[in-house]
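Below is a complete specimen:
___
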Amino acid sequence: MTTSADQGDDLAGKIEAATRKIELQDPDEGLPLLGRVINHIVEIMGVTVLCSIVLVVFVNAVSRYTIGYSFVWAEESVQMAIPWLAMTGVFLSVRRGTMIRVDFFFEKIPLRFQGLVAKLGYVVNIGVLLGMAWASLDFVMQFGGDVALYMEIPVGWSTSALVWGAAGAAMAYTAELHATWRNRDTTGGTVS
């Protein structure tokens, strides 16, 4: 005889196994070679930026507490790297279909209109991201030549991440819209 505790443990084990399988599977499975290469390049960039941030913060903290010396450029370098980390994440989440969205209201729409609403959502996302890219480009053109105080490099190096990231995410949404339109996906779901 199984108790409710045993059933709960069995269910927890099944959930853990399913979660582990999902977490370990290749997120780019089924993509064409070019798509996989693009995603892996951006992924390597993101991991490199993240590791650099962690290394700088760690070395600076150890130095501060062991020998009483803090690198003045450390905080500035982290602040300049964060936009690149964020934009690689945004680009990959759009490409892999893991961007946060609210399905509650979408599921209340009659099924025959969901495809149209999804396509309109793509168009709105593309427009917003292109607007962000344009505004970011304008910002970089006006203020990108300003030099960072300690690192003495143009801040455009950092803020240009917003241009590239927003434009890249807009292109990823455009590709998704094209694939959805081409396959005449009437459910509005992601086309693999």
The helical segments are 4-24, 33-66, 74-95, 103-106, 111-143, 156-183. The chain has one domain: 4-183. The CA atoms of residues 126 and 171 lie 8 Å apart.
